[in-house]
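seq as requested:
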Amino acid sequence: MALTGPRDFIRPLVQRLQPYIPGEQPKISGLVKLNTNENPYPPSPKVLAAIKQAADGRLRLYPNPTAQPLREKLAKFHDCKPENIIVGNGSDELLAMAVRAFVEPAIVTKSRMRTRTAGKSVVQFFHPSYSLYPVLAAMHGARANAVPLEPDFGLAPVRALKRGKQWDFRAALSFITTPNAPSGHGYSTADLQQLCELQTGVVVLDEAYVDFAEENGLSLSLKYPHVLVARTFSKAYSLCFQRVGYVVGPRELIAALDKIRDSYNVNGLGQIAAMATLDELPYYRKNFQKIVATRRRLSPMLAELGFEVFPSQANFILVRPPQYAAWAWLQKLREHKILVRWFDDTTLWDFLRISIGTPNEVDALVKAARAILR
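struct tokens:
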């Protein structure tokens, strides 16, 4: 058949893809930006100095291809070996690599074959959670299995998951965002362990916000042969601009990810920034405490105005606003130069996600909310 235009060159799978939609990055100055969960506090001055000092003749050279010095430093931090760690261009790259490494594309030919290999082509996650997961599954031609969370965004007990039969304990890859995004709901290590023990495929505990939480699942990634933990320097460590993430887990799984890693996938300045960050942990831990304190102060202030505020162990809160629809609040707050996040998802239409900013920024948010309600 003759080609009719550029679209004919594009794979049908790619034509059908719905891309991941990031939070708005405004071009207007003076906006209070509470929509993308960035840390409101800057990197440590020593980290900034290390980046500036590295901006020299080294820029003409390739960086360390495996981020070996950073992996060695992370291994000491997490009491494991460098072979248990892989570093990526943000944790998003590593999540995508996990899909490519552990999931077979869905088979669409013989029904008998499709049944026999069904679990091997499944990318599984709870809903709502990180909206990148279904995009990664679609890009790979895998089958996405989105399983609803409880109404309070908690995990259903394992016995309920078994009874409901929607959660696939044979799924090739299961993502669990912990703490959950966009709700901020924290999950106990015991609950995560119980679920991990029953999975026969790989489990990735996506801990992008774990530094603001009460518990974490890192020990599980060093205990079980099929569990990985993904972390990032973006949210808690103020390095969104540098895009550095990492995964901890069994060396065999890490080696598999390394086989499909892009060459020189982590830029040199990012590696240096991350290593300097690990030398400045007391500075960052103080910032964590400030963010948690501001979160605890903001929640009751919004509740007094009629917002339903969900408990959070992250650097953001999820709220159901009063009087107007959530999408209307999004526009009204923007008119007051406040940016928050609304998701065009039927499960989340009634909610807004609000990043925790500085005390002055959240005061501006509350002031704007009061004005809107008046």
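The CA atoms of residues 100 and 140 lie 7 Å apart.
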